[in-house]
Specification:
The protein has five domains: 31 residues; 92 residues, Multidrug efflux transporter AcrB pore domain (Alpha-Beta Plaits, 2-Layer Sandwich), CATH 3.30.70.1430; 122 residues, Methane Monooxygenase Hydroxylase, Chain G, domain 1 (Up-down Bundle); 114 residues; 186 residues, Rossmann fold, CATH 3.40.50.720. The chain is built from 18 helices and 15 strands. It is elongated. It is of the alpha+beta class.
C-alpha cells in the first residue's frame, strides 16, 4: 500500500521525507551533551562532622543515633554507614519509585527531633540527594616503578595536580592516598624535670645559706646584748660607789672641810669614769638599736627576696609547662602540619568557589525552568508592575526635579522593587530542584571553609602558645642560672674563685645569626626574607663577646652582671647592608611576618637593674648584694656614678646607620672570606 501511495503521490512522500530530515537536523543542533544526565536516584546521604572525635566516638555518639532516627523513613530499603575520624556518613537506599522530595522532608523532620541528642561539638547533619552531578567526571591513578611512595606523592602534588587544574573546564582536582611530610618535635620531659630539680635544689641551698647568715646575725646581736648587760652591771656598781664618794665629798665641803689636791683629783677621776660609763651605755644602746633596725631588716629582706624569687620561678615554670603541655596536646589532636591545613583551607575555598559558580548558573537558569509555575508568574507580574511604577516616577521627577514628594515616592517604589526581586531569588532557591541542590552544595562548602579556617586558627594559636611557653621556660631557666650563680658567689673565696655573669646581644655570623642565610639567598638569586623591618637587635662580633668576658674577669666582683654597651640597628638596615656587600637587590627584600615568640626589641638590663648598675665606660656592671655584717661602710663611703637610663634595650641604645652597619659587618672575618669567594 505504501508503494502505491509513493507512486501515486510522490510530492507528498517527498515533503514528508524533507520534513523528517529538517526536524532531525534541528533536533541534532539543539541536542545538549550530558555525560551524566539529571536522574532522580533512590539514594540519600546524611553527612555529619564531629571535629576531634575518633571513629569509635563518631560511631557511638553520632552514627548509631542517625541510623535509628532515619530507619523509620518511608520507603527505606537499606542503610549503610561509614564512621571515620571527625566524620559520620549514613547512606540510605530507597525503594524504586519513592518520591525523594517527600523522603527528604520526612528525614529533615526526623533529624530535627534528635538534634538535642547529638554531642555539642558535632555539627548539624547535612542531607543530600545523590545526583550523578556530584560524582567526579574522571578518576586517574598514578603509579611508578622507579619512585618511592613519598617521592610519587610529592611528584603528584607538585606536578600532576597543578597541570590538571590548568586544563580548561576543570573545576577542581583533589588527591587521595598521598603521603604528607610532617616534622614532629618532642621534648624530653624527664630531662626538663631533672634540670628543674637541679635548679630548684640550688635555690634551696642558697636560701639555706641566707637563713644561716640570718641566724648568725641574730646570735651576734644576742651576744652583744648579753655583753652590754654584763658591762652595764659592772658600770652601775662603779657608778654607785663613785656617787657615794662624791656625796661624801660634798658633805665634807658643806662642813667646811678643806680637800687636798689628791682628793680633788680622785673626785675628778670618779666623775670622768662616770661619764665614760654613761657614754659606753649610750654607745651599746645605739649599737643594739642599729643592729636591730638595719642588720636584721637587711638580712630578713634578703631572705624574703630569695624566697619570693623561688616561689615566682616555681610558679613561672609550672605555668609555662602547663601551657606547653596544653599546646602540644592540641597540636597532637589536630594531627596535621600548618602547610597541610593551609592546603585544606585552599581546597575548601576552591570547592566553595566552584559551588558558588554552580549555584549562580542554576539560579540563572531557574526562571526558564519555572516559566509555567503560577507562583513564579505572579512574582514576575509584580516586578513588571513595580518596574513600570518606578519608570513613571523617574519620568515625572525628570520634569520636576525639585518635587520632594515624588522623590519620596520613588525611593519607596525602588525599595519595594528590590524586595520583590529578593523574593524572586528566594522563591527560585526554594522551588527549583537544581537551585535547591546547588544551594545545599554551596552551604556545605561554606561550612567546610569555616571548619578548615577554624582548624588552621586553632593550630596557629597552639603553635604560638607552644613557642611562648618554650620561651618562658628558657627565660625562667636563664633567670634561675643567674640567681644560682649570684648565690654561689657569696660562698666563694674572692681570692681563689670569681663568679660573674655576662649578657650580650646577637653575635653576627654565629650559629644563630641570619646573615649567612641572607648570603645564601642572594647567591641563589632569591630575595632576602625578614620578619619585621622595624625590629631592633644588638649586634656585636665574636671578638667583642670575648672582650666582655675578659673585662668581667678583670673588673668584676663575685656575683656581678656585666653588659657591653653594644650598638643596635633595625633588621631592615642590617639586611640592606648585606645586600650592598653581596650585590643583592634591596627593593626585593621580602617581609614574611613576625614569628611565634619574637619580640620587637631585646633587653639586656631591666629597670630594676639599671637603678643600681654602674657605668664603666663601654660596659655596665650590676653589682650583687654581698654585704657582710659591717654595714657602716655602705652608708659612710661614697659610690661611683650610676646609670641614668631606666632600661637598656635595643630600642634606646645607639642606633647604627646603614654605612656604620655595613662597615661593622664587613670587618668580620667570615664576611671577608665570603667576599673573597665572590671575587
Amino acid at each position: 500500500m505504501l508503494s502505491r501511495l509513493s507512486v501515486k503521490k510522490p510530492m507528498t512522500v517527498f515533503v514528508c521525507v524533507m520534513l523528517v530530515l529538517i526536524l532531525g537536523v534541528m533536533s541534532f543542533i539543539n541536542m545538549t551533551t550530558d555525560l551524566l544526565p539529571n536522574m532522580d536516584l533512590p539514594y540519600a546521604i546524611a553527612y555529619t562532622t564531629y571535629i576531634g572525635a575518633s571513629p569509635e566516638q563518631v560511631e557511638q555518639s553520632v552514627t548509631k543515633t542517625l541510623e535509628s532516627a532515619l530507619a523509620t523513613t518511608s520507603g527505606v530499603k537499606n542503610i549503610t554507614s561509614i564512621s571515620q575520624e571527625n566524620v559520620s556518613i549514613v547512606v540510605l537506599e530507597f525503594e524504586e519509585g519513592t518520591g525523594m522530595d517527600s523522603a527528604m522532608i520526612e528525614m529533615n523532620a526526623s533529624l530535627d527531633q534528635i538534634a538535642g541528642s547529638l554531642p555539642e561539638a558535632a555539627g548539624s547533619p547535612v542531607l543530600m540527594k545523590i545526583n550523578p552531578d556530584m560524582l567526579p567526571i574522571m578518576v586517574l591513578a598514578v603509579d611508578s616503578d622507579n619512585m618511592a611512595r613519598n617521592e610519587l606523592s610529592e611528584f603528584t602534588s607538585s606536578t600532576v595536580i597543578p597541570a590538571l587544574e590548568r586544563v580548561d573546564g576543570v573545576a577542581s582536582v583533589s588527591g587521595s592516598g598521598l603521603v604528607e611530610s610532617q616534622i614532629r618535635v618532642e621534648l624530653d620531659q624527664a630531662k626538663i624535670d631533672e634540670l628543674n630539680d637541679k635548679v630548684l635544689a640550688a635555690i634551696d641551698s642558697s636560701l639555706a645559706d641566707a637563713e644561716k647568715q640570718l641566724k648568725d646575725s641574730r646570735r651576734q646581736i644576742n651576744d652583744a646584748k648579753k655583753k652590754l648587760e654584763e658591762q652595764s652591771g659592772t658600770a652601775y656598781a662603779q657608778l654607785v660607789a663613785a656617787a657615794q664618794q662624791l656625796a661624801d665629798a660634798k658633805d665634807q665641803a658643806s662642813l667646811g672641810s678643806t680637800l687636798t689636791s689628791a682628793e680633788v683629783k680622785a673626785i675628778q677621776a670618779v666623775l670622768a669614769q662616770y661619764d665614760n660609763m654613761v657614754n659606753l651605755r649610750d654607745s651599746y644602746n645605739a649599737s643594739e638599736d642599729y643592729a636591730r633596725t638595719h642588720l636584721s631588716a637587711v638580712k630578713y629582706a634578703e631572705l624574703q627576696s630569695l624566697q619570693l624569687t623561688r616561689t615566682q620561678l616555681r610558679a613561672q615554670l609550672k605555668a609555662a609547662q602547663a601551657s606547653l603541655e596544653t599546646a602540644e596536646a592540641t597540636l597532637k589532636e589536630i594531627g596535621s602540619s600548618e602547610a597541610a591545613l593551609q592546603q585544606d583551607v585552599t581546597n575548601a575555598k576552591d570547592a566553595q568557589e566552584a559551588a558558588q559558580t554552580a549555584y549562580d548558573k542554576a539560579l540563572d537558569g531557574a526562571p526558564e525552568r519555572l516559566k509555567d509555575d503560577p507562583g513564579w508568574q505572579d512574582l514576575l507580574r509584580q516586578e513588571q508592575e513595580k518596574q513600570a511604577e518606578v519608570d513613571d516616577l523617574q519620568a515625572q521627577l525628570e520634569k520636576d526635579p525639585d518635587n520632594t514628594g515624588l522623590q519620596a515616592q520613588l525611593n519607596t517604589a525602588e525599595a519595594e522593587l528590590a524586595a520583590i526581586q529578593a523574593a524572586q531569588t528566594a522563591y527560585l532557591t526554594r522551588n527549583d530542584p537544581q537551585t535547591v541542590a546547588a544551594a545545599e552544595k554551596l552551604s556545605a562548602a561554606e561550612e567546610e571553609v569555616t571548619r578548615a579556617n577554624a582548624r588552621l586558627e586553632t593550630f596557629q594559636q597552639a603553635t604560638e602558645a607552644k613557642a611562648e611557653a618554650e620561651k618562658a621556660i628558657a627565660d625562667a631557666t636563664k633567670a634561675i642560672e643567674e640567681k644560682v650563680a649570684v648565690a654561689k658567689s657569696r660562698l666563694c673565696n674572692p681570692d681563689k674563685t670569681k663568679i660573674c655573669c655576662t649578657r650580650y646581644g646577637n653575635v653576627m655570623c654565629s650559629r644563630g645569626s641570619v646573615i649567612p642565610l641572607w648570603i645564601e639567598q642572594i647567591r641563589a638569586g632569591l630575595p632576602i626574607t625578614l620578619t619585621e623591618p622595624s625590629m631592633t637587635r644588638f649586634i656585636m662580633s665574636l671578638d667583642e663577646a670575648v672582650d666582655l668576658v675578659l673585662f668581667a674577669f678583670e673588673h668584676g666582683a663575685n656575683g656581678d652582671i656585666l653588659v657591653q654597651k653594644a650598638p643596635a640597628c633595625t633588621v631592615q638596615v642590617q639586611a640592606e647592608a648585606v645586600c650592598e656587600l653581596f650585590g643583592g637587590k634591596k627593593e626585593d627584600i621580602k617581609v614574611i611576618g613576625i614569628r611565634h615568640g619574637e619580640k620587637m626589641y631585646e633587653t639586656l638590663l631591666t629597670k630594676e637593674e639599671c637603678a643600681k648598675a654602674v657605668d664603666m665606660g663601654n660596659f655596665y656592671r650590676v653589682p650583687a648584694d654581698n654585704r657582710d655584717l659591717n654595714y657602716d661602710k655602705f652608708f659612710t663611703e661614697g659610690d661611683v656614678e650610676h646609670v641614668t637610663i631606666e632600661e637598656f634595650n635595643s630600642d634606646n641604645a645607639y642606633r647604627l646607620s646603614l654605612e656604620e652597619t655595613k662597615v661593622k659587618i664587613a670587618a668580620l672575618e667570615y664576611i671577608q672570606e665570603e667576599l673573597a669567594k665572590k671575587k
